Amino acid sequence: PDEFVRHKILDALGDLMTLGAPLLGHLVLYKAGHDLMNKMVKKLAHSTESVQYTELGSASPELPIDPNRPPS
Asked: Maximum distance among all alpha carbons in the chain?
């Protein structure tokens, strides 16, 4: 019964894997498809502000937004 949702999650993870680096963060998707995910990946890949490389075991940075806020 939840096969569609699982498929969408795997699609999103696959799209994020094209960045070529592990991600640490919180992602909320609403009606996201390959087109939207590819746009986000391209924007992340070309933005120096959105990328922060850390070493494993270091403290994770605080999220800049409230993850419990509904999408606008």
From this structure: 40
Residue 34 is among the residues annotated as catalytic for this protein? yes
pLDDT tens digit sequence for 23-56: 777 888 888 888 988 898 888 888 777 677 666 6
Range of the domain at 17: 1-72
Residues 6+ apart with CB under 8 A from 51: 44
Region of residue 50 (left: phi > 0; alpha: psi -120 to 50; beta: else): alpha
- Copy the structure tokens of residue 31: 């009606």
The interaxial angle of helices 3-17 and 34-46, nearest 10 deg, is 30
Catalytic residue among 7, 26, 34, 46: 34
